[in-house]
Design brief:
This protein is α/β, with parallel strands linked by helices and 324 residues long. It has two domains: 7-179, Rossmann fold, CATH 3.40.50; 201-320, CBS-domain. Helix content is 43%, strand content 17%.
Length: 324
């Protein structure tokens, strides 16, 4: 059969249908969604995701996303569940059952066990008057006006909408749990997501003789020479006891040269930046990078709990280590 539409036009039409299907879900976000979030948040066991066929494939991704964002989750194949695999279900679990029609028989075969154990059931379905929706403690509407498939048969827009709803659940749970960037990185130590992110600041900082450290009463011109020698674009300034009191940056130098025609008598404490941004050597390098990007800093001073400088971390070293 010959194509009746231009291939690029058809591709754009598919994307338009799927995009509108996702946006349509927003109309259904309300009390049911909040209740689903509260049930998942209160779950003392695991979240068991189940679905057949294409819904099952989407369910696997939802389970994986939940697990990686702080909600322990597992995918259960509904056909296998009635042949012994349902033994993984406990009374403390919450089940997310996915069926566009709400009448998938393999899924419905699980209902007697769910009801017998009193397991909380959240249905993701487009069949709002279906057996699944009526059997669920709460159901979420994932219905679509039509599939992106020209035959309106192959699950396309409906699976995309389901995936988006799963992401909405996972992200809201992440926020409700106060799941941090550090928590996320612990679950992603490998691959591009985790590459370099688990470095601590002390693993990447510059220390020892390479540090540009000067005293408050040092001459401004001498500290400029120190910065040029150490090649970090800044110097750490300390008082007589060794406590860090400021930094001198390239920006400070430029501003000083514009303001002062004679720098011969200037001491560095007259022109340095006081109360500079610092970070503990025990913090994650990712946090240092976030701080540097937020305040447009290329080199960040590292101090211990007594405000004694112990190192400098440079943005170039963070980028080389994959902390980006």
């Amino acid at each position: 059969m010959l194509m009746t539409k231009n291939i690029t036009d058809l591709a754009k039409e598919v994307l338009d249908i799927e995009a509108s299907s996702i946006l349509r879900l927003k109309n259904g976000i309300g009390a049911n969604f909040e209740r689903a979030i509260n049930l998942l948040y209160a779950c003392k066991g695991r979240v068991i995701v189940t679905g057949m066929g294409k819904s099952g494939l989407i369910g696997k991704k939802i389970a994986a996303t939940l697990s990686s964002t702080g909600t322990p989750s597992y995918f259960l194949h509904p056909a296998e569940s009635t042949h012994g695999d349902s033994g993984i279900i406990t009374r403390e679990d919450v089940i997310i059952a996915i069926s566009n029609s709400g009448e998938t028989q393999e899924l419905l075969n699980l209902l007697p066990l769910i009801k017998r154990f009193g397991v909380t059931l959240i249905g993701l379905t487009g069949g709002l008057n279906s057996t699944l929706s009526k059997s669920s403690d709460v159901y979420l509407d994932i219905s679509v006006e039509k599939e992106a498939c020209p035959l309106n048969k192959a699950p396309t827009a409906s699976t995309t909408a389901t995936l988006a709803m799963g992401d909405a659940l996972a992200v809201c749970l992440l926020e409700k749990r106060g799941f941090s960037e550090e928590d996320f990185l612990i679950f992603h130590p490998s691959g591009k997501l985790g590459k370099g992110f688990l470095y601590s600041v002390e693993e990447l900082m510059i220390t020892g003789e390479k540090l540009p450290i000067a005293k408050e009463d040092d001459k401004f011109a001498d500290v400029i020479e120190l910065i040029s020698e150490k090649k970090l674009g800044m110097a750490i300034i300390t008082d007589k006891t060794g406590v860090m009191t400021g930094v001198l940056t390239d920006g400070d130098i430029r501003r000083t040269l514009i303001k002062h025609h004679n720098i011969e008598k200037l001491t560095v404490n007259e022109v340095m930046t006081i109360n500079p941004k610092t970070i503990s050597p025990k913090e994650l390098a990712a946090k240092a990078l976030n701080l540097m990007e937020k305040y447009s800093i290329t080199a960040l001073a590292i101090s211990d709990e007594n405000k004694i400088p112990v190192g400098v971390v440079h943005i170039h070293d963070l980028l080389k280590a994959g902390v980006a």
